[in-house]
């Protein structure tokens, strides 16, 4: 007989709270959205990853990590990338 899932019928937030990963999941989601927005702006401008890497004085592999939201991407890195595509990164407490 299979065990009953203790999370069956709960909300996503309740599940994330119970697992102790709500803030980490939220941070990951925000990073992915910003990375997606950067990629969209680059596409709109016709900017390649190589061009952004050159402007950031970094490697194309690092730009790939930023745009895939992989690894520990700092706010400073996201801010620099945003500035170089002519946008502004805004963070606020609500």
Can you characterise this structure?
With 94 residues, the protein is mainly alpha-helical. The protein has 5 helices and no strands. α3 (49-56) crosses α4 (60-67). It is elongated, with a radius of gyration of 18 Å. The mean pLDDT is 91.
Helices and strands, with pairings:
Elements: H1 12-19, H2 22-45, H3 49-56, H4 60-67, H5 75-84
Task: Kindly summarize this structure in a few lines.
This protein is mainly alpha-helical and 94 residues long.
What amount of the residues lies in strands?
under 5%
Uncertain runs = none
List the secondary-structure elements in sequence, H or E: HHHHH
Largest sheet: none
Query: What's the total count of β strands?
Result: 0
3D shape: elongated
Oligomer: single chain
Rounded to an integer in angstroms, the radius of gyration calculated over CA atoms is 18 Å
The share of residues in helices is 55-70%
Average pLDDT, rounded to a whole number, is: 91
What is the number of helical segments per DSSP (H or I, 4+ residues)? 5
By secondary-structure content and strand pairing, the structural class works out as mainly alpha
Report the end-to-end length measured between terminal Cα atoms.
Answer: 46 Å
């Amino acid at each position: 007989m299979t065990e009953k899932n203790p999370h069956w019928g709960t909300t996503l937030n309740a599940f994330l709270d119970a697992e102790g990963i709500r803030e980490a999941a939220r941070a990951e989601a925000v990073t992915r959205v910003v990375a997606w927005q950067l990629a969209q702006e680059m596409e709109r401008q016709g900017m390649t990853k190589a061009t952004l890497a050159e402007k950031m004085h970094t490697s194309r592999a690092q730009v790939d990590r930023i745009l895939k939201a992989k690894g520990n991407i700092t706010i400073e890195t996201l801010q620099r990338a945003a500035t170089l595509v002519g946008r502004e990164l805004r963070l606020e407490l609500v």
